[in-house]
Amino acid sequence: MPTKAKAKKQSKGKILFVEDDKFLSEMFRQKFVMEGYKPIMAHTAISAVLALRDENPKALILDVVLPDSECWMILEYFRKKKDTKPVPVMILTNWDNAEYKTKAEQLGADAFIVKYQTTPEKLVEIMEDLIKKYEAKK
């Protein structure tokens, strides 16, 4: 008896997620997969820059404090690269302070989210809203 092949759900696109906390990154990765995205996980600034070079993410989510740097270098690198299309960038951090918010805004981040004030569901919702805004600009 022939079996029906399951229709493969089309991916909504790649999201580069830069987070050094492995528990948090896995929790958020699972939620983005459930919502149809293909998360690319990076745990250091170096691995994030390599992923930016090799992948074409639809959006970036950056933790501020990483083992080898802060996210600002990644954000500057990405925003100044001439061959990258504009995509939303979200800063996800434990540090709820005005200095980081200002720096994120100055460097072109689209959202500043404090980890303990959000959930994986809310993070996906915010990112999807940002992606829609960017796609509407095309």
UniProtKB/TrEMBL annotation:
UniProt GO BP: phosphorelay signal transduction system
The UniProt record lists the keyword Phosphoprotein: yes
Record-linked Gene3D superfamilies: 3.40.50.2300
SUPFAM superfamilies named in the record: CheY-like
Entries under Pfam families matching the protein: Response_reg (PF00072)
Keyword Phosphoprotein part of the UniProt annotation: yes
Cleavable signal peptide: none
Modified residues (4-aspartylphosphate): D63
InterPro entries to which the protein is assigned, alphabetical: Bact_response_regulator (IPR050595), CheY-like_superfamily (IPR011006), Sig_transdc_resp-reg_receiver (IPR001789)
All copies of domain Response regulatory, residue ranges: 14-130
Superkingdom: Bacteria
Keyword terms, alphabetized: Phosphoprotein, Two-component regulatory system
Name of this protein: Response regulatory domain-containing protein
Organism: Candidatus Kerfeldbacteria bacterium CG08_land_8_20_14_0_20_42_7
Lineage: Bacteria, Candidatus Kerfeldiibacteriota
